[in-house]
Design a protein that fits this description.
It holds the Pfam family TetR_N. With 209 residues, this protein is mainly alpha-helical. The protein is built from nine helices and two strands. It is flat, with a radius of gyration of 22 Å.
């Protein structure tokens, strides 16, 4: 008769050590991100060096490279810290549809960090930062469309839909940032969603006949 195999659990000390290590790692990442953001308010992103980050934070070089490949990898981690866009159910043309709330995700996060965003996108390095943001948005929107079966992201038509949506979002977002946030994040999100998700075009008060 086979004897039951007893369940094995890691020693409590190992669990606690693992949790402490995870907390230390998180604190280190947050410390480096905070330092990079503070420096970005003082100078162009291209002028920030890894050595300067280490000198300001006291983090060892080996520790930095245990977490990040380079300072661009640290920048990407900053986007990750915002989280991912949520989905919501909307009534669109009489149908209940699952919508990726990526506009709220982008505009609300930008409003919370307006000074930092203005600094980043007024600098000569804005192209590098914008490329990372665009890539993150493309991945999020492409995956959402794939899950919802809206279109195949591996066919030309699917990629056109994804890039048109992301291009419109980034274009409006850049206008908003470069014009010093002329309206609230909620207002611009609602205007974007009415057009891009619901297809509601403004008529400027002129009756259509």
């Amino acid at each position: 008769m086979n004897q039951p195999i007893p369940l094995q659990f890691p020693p409590l000390a190992d669990e606690l050590a693992g949790k402490r290590h995870a907390l230390r790692s998180q604190r280190t990442r947050e410390l480096l991100l905070d330092c990079m953001y503070r420096l970005a308010l003082e100078k162009d992103y291209s002028e920030i060096t890894v050595q300067e980050l280490l000198d300001r934070t006291g983090v060892a070089r080996s520790t930095f490279y245990a977490h990040f490949r380079d300072k661009e990898d640290l920048l990407i981690a900053g986007y990750d810290s915002i989280g991912i866009p949520r989905t919501r159910v909307d009534d669109i043309s009489g149908d209940r549809c699952v919508v990726l709330d990526v506009s709220t995700w982008l505009f609300a996060a930008t409003e919370r960090h307006a000074a930092l965003t203005t600094s980043f996108f007024s600098s000569p390095s804005q192209g590098i930062i914008l490329a990372h943001l665009e890539n993150i948005l493309l991945i999020q929107v492409r995956e959402h469309y794939r899950k919802q079966g809206i279109c195949s992201a591996y066919e030309l038509s699917g990629e056109v839909v994804v890039r048109c949506f992301v291009g419109a979002l980034i274009g409006l977002w850049l206008w908003w940032v470069r014009h010093d946030y002329p309206c609230s994040a909620q207002e611009i999100t609602e205007a974007f969603d009415k057009l891009m998700n619901n297809g509601t075009w403004p008529t400027a008060g002129i009756p259509l006949s």
